[in-house]
Write a structure and sequence with these properties.
Largest sheet: 2 strands, antiparallel
Low-confidence stretches: none
Radius of gyration: 21 Å
Structural class: mainly alpha
Oligomer: single chain
Number of domains: 3
Strand content: under 5%
Helix content: over 70%
Amino acid sequence: MSPPEPISLARSESRVLRLLNLDLFVLFNLALFLLMCAFSYYARFVEYRGAANALEFLVYALVIILGSVFLWVYFRKYPFDSKLLGLIQVGILLHYGGAFVEIGGARLYDHLLLGLRYDKLVHFANAGIIAALIGRLFRIRAMRRDLIDAVLIVVAVLGLGAIIEVVEYLVCLTIPGHGVGGYDNNMQDLIANLAGGVTSVLIQYGRVRD
């Protein structure tokens, strides 16, 4: 009965290391974000949007902080390896670089790279990283029926709805006299998709519990 002990101990140590990786990752990025807010983000926001809109900045900052804490508490039980966390960190740093690195008196976000605005390249990279993260979640969870599954279902609905909005945008660009609405219509469609997805999930999960 003694041989299994080293294996069990190795698994336990591996789990501790994975938890430590995620803990350090979240704590580092929360601290980095708070430092950015204190020394740069807030000042830039007020400079570009005006002091009257400072409350808007605080709302964004609060959402990011609360969201980070929630994800940390919920996901720390899952085995995220260092490579995946490293990819996510790259995506975060790409954003910070675009916002704070200046070349020729303009933000990196305002420059073109490979014929595209840096902003679009960051979106492309981060979308790929998030896809890898969600793929990892599906593999390690075996799709249990709980809160995170509900969130993933709703996010998938929003993603599919966003494809339709992309098609409508292409119509706006290419077909004169189109009947597609503007930005308000686009966002109202996405809000309707969100409400429909959430309602469906609540009904489905209510049936499962029954």
